[in-house]
Amino acid sequence: MDQLTQRQERILLSLKKLDFLNRDQLSQIHKLGKVRNTNRILNELSPYLSKYREEYSTIYYLNSQGRQYVNSQKIRRKNQFVNHIIMRNDFYIFCKCPVEWENEIRLKDNHYTVICDAFFKMNKKYYCLEVDSTQKMKVNRAKIQQYIGLYRGGAIKEHFGHFPGVIWLTTTELRKKQLKELCSGLPCAVYTIKEIR
After folding, report:
1. pTM for the complete prediction?
2. Non-local CB neighbours of 55 within 8 Å, separated by 6+ positions
3. What's 192's DSSP letter?
4. pLDDT at position 3, please?
5. What span, in angstroms and rounded, lies between the C-alpha atoms of 109 and 94?
6. Residue 118, SS3?
7. Beta pairing partners, 22
8. What angle do CA 115, 141, 83 make, to 5 degrees?
9. Beta strands 49-54 and 57-62: pairing type?
10. 122 has which bridge partners?
11. Residue 110: which residues within 8 A CB-CB, separation 6 or more?
12. What is the pLDDT of residue 55?
């Protein structure tokens, strides 16, 4: 296996961390410049990457050689959740790529459990990110009930020194309004994808 440059390695590592990234996201995270330059750099990495077209963008993920290079056990395949992941990664970029950022983290006490889409630290505080792309509001409502239970229980607050802020990223102004109402009583913020892109 060839030795890659530091920048090439960083690109593979960001795909290990974030699963799927489109060309624009890769360009923003790694400051690859104009489209032509980005395409050239990603083309040079083609032995390590799989890609496919989705509407107007190209989405990249690690193939078996890429996974081997960065020692990743997680096999990624194109599926119906990719758009959800792309939205999550838009928020990662919006937050200026926090160093402490983990996907699919479970928070629980003795009664309530929630698996957040991402758990991250920014300005010395922890946050849970929830991406609402296609799920039914009923599912969101049930999840918010779990968060409220965790919030009232106090064990999570005790563990982190504060209760992590809950951030929702959604698709429309109407859904934003509904989520805000459901979250009243929680430390919560709601953004639409338009506001952060």
Report:
1. 0.96
2. none
3. E
4. 87
5. 30
6. strand
7. 59
8. 60
9. antiparallel
10. 125
11. 153, 155
12. 85
113: number of Cβ within 10 Å? 12
**What span, in angstroms and rounded, lies between the C-alpha atoms of 81 and 135?**
11
Q: Residue 80 corresponds to which tokens in the numbers above?
A: 């119906």
Query: Where are the alpha helices (H) located in the chain, listed in sequence order?
Result: 6-18, 23-30, 35-44, 64-69, 82-94, 137-153, 155-160, 173-182, 193-196
Contact 182, 144 (CB under 8 A): yes
Dig out the tokens for 150 from the structure: 């965790």
For residue 138, the cross-strand partners are none
Flag residues of the chain having pLDDT under 70: 1
Distance of alpha carbon 141 from alpha carbon 178, whole angstroms:
10
Pairing type for strands 125-131 and 165-170 reads: parallel
